[in-house]
Amino acid sequence: MLIKINGEDVDIPEGSTIKDAIELSNAPYKKGSIVCLIKGESEIQSNVLKYKIKTPKGSILIELEVSEKSKPLTDFFKENYSLFSSNNVRWETSNEVAIGPVESNFEPSHDEFRYFDNDVLISLSGFSKEATHIIFVKDDHSNVYGVPKYSDRGVFARIIGGRRTLFSLTDDDEILSIEPVIERSTVTDSTGGSNLEEVLEEGNQLFTYALLEPNAKSPASVEHLFSLIRNNKIQVDFESNSFLGFYELNGLTKDAEEISERKRGTVTLRSEGNGKGRVYVYREDRVRAETHTNLATVKQGMELFDTAKKGDFITVLSDPERIMLMMLTQKEAEEKMQSLGIKHVRDGNLDDDAIVVIQTPENTIDILENKEVTTFGLASDELVKIKLTDKAPRTRWYLEKISGLAEKPVGTLKVYFAVPDMNMFMFNGDTDESKGLIPENIPTDIVKAGEIAVTNMSRKNLGLIGIRTIDTDEFGPTGEAFSATNIVGEVVGNIEGLNKLKDGSTLYIYEVYDEE
Questions:
Q1: How many angstroms separate the Cα of 7 from the Cα of each of 4, 283, 284, 306, 477?
Q2: SS3 content of the chain, % helix, strand, coil (to 5)
Q3: 391-411: per-residue pLDDT in tens?
Q4: CB-based contacts of 514: which residues, under 8 Å, 6+ apart?
Q5: 473: Cβ–Cβ under 8 A, 6 or more apart, which residues?
Q6: 139 and 117 in contact (C-beta within 8 Å)?
Q7: CA distance 88 to 313
Q8: Which of 82-91, 227-236, 376-385 has the lowest mean pLDDT?
């Protein structure tokens, strides 16, 4: 049987489930993400209420009436709107603009009716079915249009946008296209279940991922978006009728870049004020806001954003993809850049197996524009692997933010005090970012070797970070009492690398997660 998966026709066996279809088609999908199932194209079309009529002078937006009397007319329009495309404006007067003709099966009325500006009606010109036109009313007037019998004056829609375009049209202008306007309500009213074990039927439409097109005019902000998408998944933190919110990087500041209108499918980053660092995907059009940078546009899979709820994961891909070379070897980075036609320059440790810890430029858009990137390498035994705990969420966020791990695979900590003989290493904190670090995940009897701690707000050295390489039951890794010590994680690989540190040097760290 034939279905559509992410807009492409796919032939699958009868009785296949959503899970089967994903596997058979190799459709992009990350485990745990939602999918969107629409029973068929007719389901979508039946719920469309707005249409855009494009002309050389601009576009006109109409909204269909919803009533029993108008239903035969709206059904006719939905089935035949494409036939009105590529026709010229048939005539225009001070009261009206007409497009057509097409053929219909309506019986004409000979009555005169009163019409009002913005009415859109069906007219059988000369009372002939073969001369069925659409009339756009420019001004209040009365006329005999030969409208279909038993309808409400032949009116089936209203003009809700583009009146200036309407008044500029002449009979030399062509109707370039008529397109349905898909809105969130159009999609949500058409969707069925999304259980992966649901059995599919002929004509079903399945959406498994969303494709984003980054905005090249907002390079730093686009990288913020990439940082939010881990393992090609993104989680919804807030849902409203007009947008979805993604708040994981709340508080991370980026300067404003390109500002534009927030159309349906626009992805933005709040750059100032309450909620800076949050990312939004718009389900409905919203006006331009100076605090919102345009990050990207949803090019495919908007249906997933329409149907997602708070807590849902959505599989997300980007074109172009993020260029992130950190944690690759110098050799792997070189091969990847060769495949993209980008010049690669090695710095630091130049060995093939050296690990990339810095890339310049940092931003994907800048690398693609410059066609060149430099990678700084370290020997693997100079890089420390850490795992952070969920038991100290504020402290974890603090450490990820100031080290850079919130946005990159490799973070850095500046050494404040390193005494290998005492098995103690301390790292600079951030006075502003550490405000509000309440006591959390406090040790009781012992701090184990390799545990990472941060001084909480009960002491003046608030925000200082420390690691000890031996167990201790006397004081925390930052030299404070246990009550002032927040345990935020542990070193789980290459703890010996700490012994090479000196005052003022830099520790390079990378984070591993439970799923790894």
A1: 5, 19, 22, 16, 55
A2: 20, 35, 45
A3: 999 999 999 999 999 999 999
A4: none
A5: 445, 446, 447
A6: yes
A7: 47
A8: 82-91
